[in-house]
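## tool: complex_structure
## caller: assistant
## args:
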Amino acid sequence: MKEQVQLHKDQFIDELKQFLQIPSISALSEHKQDVQKAAKWLANSLEKIGMENVEVIETDGHPIVYGDWLHAEGKPTVLVYGHYDVQPSDPLELWETPPFDPVVRDGKIFARGATDDKGQLMIHVKAAELLMKENNGKLPINMKFCIEGEEEVASPNLSPFIQNNKEKLSADAVVVSDTSFINKKQPAICTSLRGALALEIKLKTANTDLHSGSYGGGVPNAVHSIVRLLESLHDEKGKVKVKGFYKGVPEPAGDLRKEVAEIPFDEEEMRNELEIEELYGEEGFTFNERTGIRPTLEINGVGGGFQGEGLKTIVPSEAVAKISCRLVGEQDPSEVYDRILEHVEKYKPSGSRVTIQKLIQAHPVSLDSKDPMIQKAADAYEKVYGVRPLFPKEGGSIPIVEVFARVLDAPVVLMGFGLNTENLHAPNEHFHLENFTKGIETVCEYLSDLS
Amino acid sequence: MKEQVQLHKDQFIDELKQFLQIPSISALSEHKQDVQKAAKWLANSLEKIGMENVEVIETDGHPIVYGDWLHAEGKPTVLVYGHYDVQPSDPLELWETPPFDPVVRDGKIFARGATDDKGQLMIHVKAAELLMKENNGKLPINMKFCIEGEEEVASPNLSPFIQNNKEKLSADAVVVSDTSFINKKQPAICTSLRGALALEIKLKTANTDLHSGSYGGGVPNAVHSIVRLLESLHDEKGKVKVKGFYKGVPEPAGDLRKEVAEIPFDEEEMRNELEIEELYGEEGFTFNERTGIRPTLEINGVGGGFQGEGLKTIVPSEAVAKISCRLVGEQDPSEVYDRILEHVEKYKPSGSRVTIQKLIQAHPVSLDSKDPMIQKAADAYEKVYGVRPLFPKEGGSIPIVEVFARVLDAPVVLMGFGLNTENLHAPNEHFHLENFTKGIETVCEYLSDLS
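## result:
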């Protein structure tokens, strides 16, 4: 397909530019119309290439775009998931060219959403277009598109939509291109995402801050109390001390450890880049294991008392901490939440009133790299790139992946074409056009191979 | 003197109102001229009553007002210290009447500075005026006034001024009215002030916050590290664990404990008022002892990572804590600072880079309640109020008191006429006029008795 892709390359890039010009920032209400516009542009795009039953489905938030082509009888069905919304673009002054005025420089297209996720999403649309063009309007397999406009605001409406539309969305594989290569030469299919549980702890001791002269040493200090409580969460070696926290965490088996060990990691380079004196974490595990297949409990922030310039001699009466866990295996975020509540109840210093609020939760997901739908994707990469993908375990969470896998009972194939260096969520976001065109080739190979 | 005070009461209150009308806020540069104006008004006031050598002495900040009358040969010399500057007045909307438009309601005069310290300072000016009027322009003792305009900004220029003017300021007693009664019916002469040492600890782990998905569990977390460090400062029972911290802290002797025990304290009332579930502190000591004659190390504030609304899943790279100690007896703030540095060096978790900045330090001061200059002040209170003062140990610090006591080698007599309920540093500050007039009587009695 290389020739066909090259033949249409300029047209594809022009269309991608059109898509990138729409500032579909889902987090900002002043861009609501732009998000709508992007949904319509995408729906129109799907119709133009020959997709059927194309809909812009309204939700309580931004719409979901659906389209399908289901005439490959007896052949597997692939559901493509992606998102047409983008992150906010500030700080604007750090962009070399305006975020919604896409420009090609050095073989990269610069714009907000270039790699996350409009560029990667368009790979599938253009692959479908090419396959149809080559086969008199027919696809080698059945195909569905389910593209949301709320990924950057934690997908509040997609999860119930999937639950309520199991039949409509049913597929043999869910294909997602929203992840990254290991590096420019090494493609990757992520097969594990950690789950998440985030909460906020508020601690109060008195109804007002008190003068540290008149009261210091005689009343509880909310900062002392939260420090004691937070310190109780880990042991000396960084293991989480919350009773029951590790329930459901699998003993890392040989195969998994092997796949993790294959992911290149240069400790010295990372330490130098981040100016970290030494790494840290659970004993007996490598950095890739600690961040990929082991759970963690991190305090994301703490605040209490006086934080301005200089000095205010108070005994603080309130303190707040934000905590988030990354979960793996069979860890259940609701259960972990209950265990943390019990821990706090037990370890909060006397004289402290504590309230806890759950902020988010998401199940972890593990995908079997041996699944044929994943192995065939790996074959396609190898054909196009000449290198077989690795199977990294991602420390972050894409909560909707677990929902797709569980509700549709289908493997999710995380066919990423991005690079970690492409400034996603940052100024000067870009996407390597080589991966755009080779991505289209790879997806064409994959879908053809599935037929 | 009661009659004479009553005779001139209206005039005295009118003059106090004039003084209170000047917004001499030392902390705000836009009020620099007002501070100057208050200094001149006060100097003029001292000259009018017959004080000599009156000067407005410029400093690097706001001026010091000096005046004396030294013709009582063979009699003791009393130096009056006070301050003519005031706290800022915001939040303005909470004042029932404007802060610099003094109003008398229910026997109280309402204005910023009414009790802290213009009203209490004027007690001494008016007492001197009355005594001179009664004795053909003569005072029964020698008198010096040294009044600063920077008390509310930590007296940066007074301490060197005292050091450089030992002779000029030398006295048999330094009299200060800037403290409070125990309650409306119970006068007090404070005989102990805790010292202070305040510092800021900054801790860094990496050069940027990191994504808690990709890095969580594998790199040091600055909030975890500061929590561990801060938790190491106290043992389970609230005792300070910094090695050498308690050096110089006296074993509380019988007399001292007795004086402290005499200060009324209603634990239940305090707990209810502040909504504190239970008190807290060093074992074996009462609340008054813990806050009056025992040292403490309080974390005044802590901050690190994300503190906004909702959630940001980061591994924080920086955290800051503010710490202040209150010191007693022979504790030396410089030495305590060194001990804390050693402690931090020893207990900072690996992978943390810590920088420490000293913010303030002040020596503690203990005054002997048996000193005749203090006992005679107690006699004067008893004559006027019918109740002998108690001798509370104040948990707060008035650093300049220790400088006066040490440099001039003279007892400091903390003859307070305020009440804790008079909203000092808060909206609707006021001063009970009964304590203004009785204060003048008390000071007249005291100075006459010293002759």
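## assistant note: The domain at 2-192+365-450 of chain A is CATH 3.40.630.10 (Aminopeptidase). The first strand of chain A starts at residue 52 and ends at 57. Handing back to user.
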